[in-house]
Task: inverse folding
């Protein structure tokens, strides 16, 4: 990879378990590959530690495979035609299992053990395939070591500028407009019509549409649940206040103002709604966080946990309004009755 590889990718997809050096330097892992120590290092998968028992303090052995007799049959060989646009010229193994003809080996130090990385395959599960990442100069040195004086590979072993690129990542500046992006894509296709261009905006547009649908669906379901909860709260508070007619009559007979009696039941309703909202919020966050972790493990993607602040504010605001309406209406109606009718009421 190039030195600015990680600068053009999303850092959320980079998950590392160990790093050999450079923790105190203001440099990315791809930039550290181009330091003197990084030229003898490589990114490796976390599963290598479980398979071979090596860490960032140890030297790992890379077995380099190249069968020159099968050069003319790229489908049967792990080394492809250098005239093709691919960077998969060298098969780098971290174990000898399943190898064909091992012509050379070299020692490298793991710069970092990664579980996941953007654009590169890493894993922490033994038995799964993974990549090994080095700098262009290290790749050229390894290629020169394994191919020797083969004239078919002399161009790439002489200069890193002659190593074809499989992918080029372009990170736009934040101030660029959509028209400028389209113009750049059009110019690239004019230069080479066979190139395949992946535009993140196409995926982002679909994701935003899906997120909008989910948001409005959630608001609609939340509104229905709040309506049902409101009627349940009204029935509960009305029954509770009707059954406390004698207590209300006693408080009014002792000289308690009617507005204070109404406020007593409003506060009671507020406490009930607030406690229920907190309990529901805690249960929902716990279930949602557990499901997010489960999806992250199953998909091996860093799925962030999203806390729906707008939903929470809307629910609490609607709950307080419902609590006020559900308690004010029956309590105010009871305080307008005479004290005698409240004390003699038996139903």
Result:
């Amino acid at each position: 990879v190039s030195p600015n590889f990680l600068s053009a990718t999303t850092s959320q997809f980079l998950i590392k378990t160990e790093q050999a050096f450079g923790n105190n330097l203001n440099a990315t892992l791809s930039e550290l590959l181009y330091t003197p120590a990084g030229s003898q290092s490589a990114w490796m998968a976390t599963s290598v530690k479980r398979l071979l028992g090596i860490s960032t303090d140890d030297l790992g052995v890379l077995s380099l495979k190249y069968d020159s007799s099968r050069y003319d049959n790229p489908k049967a060989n792990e080394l492809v035609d250098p005239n093709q646009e691919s960077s998969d010229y060298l098969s780098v193994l971290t174990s000898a299992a399943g190898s064909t003809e091992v012509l050379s080996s070299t020692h490298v130090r793991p710069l970092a053990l990664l579980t996941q990385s953007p654009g590169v395959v890493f894993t922490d599960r033994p038995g799964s395939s993974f990549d090994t990442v080095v700098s262009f100069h290290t790749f050229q040195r390894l290629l020169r070591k394994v191919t020797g004086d083969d004239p078919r590979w002399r161009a790439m072993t002489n200069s890193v500028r002659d190593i074809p690129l499989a992918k080029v990542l372009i990170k736009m500046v934040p101030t660029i407009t959509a028209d400028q992006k389209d113009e750049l894509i059009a110019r690239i296709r004019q230069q080479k019509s066979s190139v395949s261009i992946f535009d993140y905006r196409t995926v982002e547009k679909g994701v935003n549409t899906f997120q909008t649908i989910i948001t409005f669906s959630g608001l609609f379901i939340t509104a229905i649940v709040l309506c049902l909860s409101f009627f349940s709260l009204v029935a509960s508070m009305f029954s509770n206040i009707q059954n406390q007619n004698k207590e209300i009559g006693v408080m009014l007979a002792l000289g308690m103002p009617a507005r204070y009696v109404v406020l007593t039941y409003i506060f009671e309703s507020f406490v009930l709604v607030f406690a229920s909202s907190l309990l529901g919020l805690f249960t929902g966050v716990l279930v949602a966080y557990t499901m997010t972790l489960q999806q992250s493990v199953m998909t091996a993607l860093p799925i962030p946990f999203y806390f729906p602040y707008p939903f929470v504010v809307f629910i609490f605001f609607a709950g307080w309004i419902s609590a006020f309406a559900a308690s004010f209406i029956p309590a105010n109606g009871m305080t307008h009755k005479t004290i005698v009718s409240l004390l003699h009421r038996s139903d």
The longest helix spans residues 200-242. The mean pLDDT is 77. The first strand starts at residue 15 and ends at 19.
